[in-house]
Amino acid sequence: MKKLKLTYNSPVVLTFSLMCLVATVLGIASDGRITEAVFMTYHSSMLSPMTWLRFFTHVLGHANFTHFLGNVSYLLLLGPMLEEKYGSNSLIIAILITAVVTGLANYLLFPNVALCGASGVVFAFILLASFTSFKEGTIPLTFLLVAFIYLGEQIYDGIFLQDNISNMAHIIGGIVGGTLGFTLNRKKK
Fold this sequence. Notes:
By secondary structure, the chain is mainly α.
């Protein structure tokens, strides 16, 4: 009988998820002070190095464990498949681009709103996953349906619901994921 062993099968996704867990625990343990200081982006001086750091780190912090578990479950479901198909470097790039673009958009468009959480990255992964069977010169029907369902819901919710969910981050994450899906698959000729 062969011995079974655990493998760190998806290093980027597992490390990112672990970083989110640590940031969330630190935030909860400090009654939100660490989240606000390091893992949340909001309108602050562009001269502060922390403002620039938070454009990247806000995707790690979460308001509570429910928020964290909702995001990390999608990351762990979709991430390993994406990391296997596109490679670790491409997933790092997807996470970083999503973080910076959502952070900057929030800073510029919503100066009175703070943003934290990995949901923009989750939406990037969702749209990127819809390209798993992409062929040059085609548009996958799965991409169109996923974009219509997920992004359509976010646009609707953003217009008609008043909640603490950043529909803007979801929409931008989806756009980043869709754009990367087209770009990464065109390169794999």
